Amino acid sequence: MLTLLIDGLAYGMLLFVLASGLSVTLGVMNFINLAHGAFAMAGGYFGVVLVNVLGVPFLLALPLAAIGTGLLGLVLERTLYVHVYARSHLDQVLFSIGLVFIAMAVVDYTQGSQQQFLRLPDFLRARIDLGGATIGAYRLLIIAVCGVLAGVLQFVLVRTGFGARLRAAVDDPVVARGLGINVGAIFAVTFAVGSGLAGLGGALGAEILGLDPSFPLKFMVYFLIVVTAGGTAGMIGPLLAAIMLGIADVGGKYYFPTFGGFVIYTLMIVLLVRRPNGLFAR
Questions:
Q1: Which of 46, 233, 235, 237 has an alpha carbon within 20 to 30 A of 150's alpha carbon?
Q2: How many Cβ atoms from other residues are within 10 Å of residue 77's Cβ?
Q3: What does pTM read for this prediction?
Q4: Angle, to 10 degrees, between the axis of helix 2-22 and the axis of helix 215-230?
Q5: Alpha helix (H) ranges present in 172-256?
């Protein structure tokens, strides 16, 4: 039971890191970026190339994958996304879903269609005994990294001047510019950070989730569930939603293998019926 709980917690925390960038772009910037999973896929493949091909240590490859994906996001934001911010949500959906199919085609052409996994170092393959339950060191690392990221993101968005300027730039960009806020730079940095978080999640979770060209579509629904059920008031709601969904998904597939795939959607429906604006909506 404890093993299942830890596995579900690790899976939920991983979902949070993967979806946290979407929480920022959709929840804070009010931009529907359905191509978020493509950035996660890019980070995963960055990690695979760095570790499996170039022999870079795993713990060093994680920040490098995040930085590489963040820079990719910055370039695309300045060249493509900046032209879609003021467009309707339908235009944003069509634009970003088009990028998903382009990314899938590029990955299929350059990396092949077979599923790939990131090689873990021996110390992360170890098993640790916790109160009679055997837990993998890799899953404990995921829980630790995701917990730290959740705290840092919540603090930056809610308690810092950058978070206040970002919210002002989203609420009224004209007035924000009049107050001396560089709205373009704020959006560019925020989008790059969101992309980097997606890349970090993709590299961190490549061993659990696997990588193939269908990755963005396969996990798009999970990202949207975390953001929708968690709400946009901060990072605490998406974090709790991701943990609940992760534990429900792992437990449902273990105890109800035939119907386990429906558990996460049932929980989503219950959450949205009870809290339609998110867990901590104000």
A1: 46
A2: 24
A3: 0.89
A4: 90
A5: 173-178, 183-204, 206-209, 215-230, 236-255
Residues 6+ apart with CB under 8 A from 217: 37, 100, 104
Q: How far apart are CA 19 and CA 100, in angstroms?
A: 16
Q: 3-state SS of 71-138?
A: HHHHHHHHHCHHHCCCCCHHHHHHHHHHHHHHHHHHHHHHHCCCCECCCCCHHHCCEEEECCEEEEHH
Residues 42 and 103 sit within 8 Å (Cβ to Cβ): yes
Got the DSSP string for 20-80? HHHIIIIIIS----TTHHHHHHHHHHHHHIIIIIT---HHHHHHHHHHHHHHHHHHHHHHT
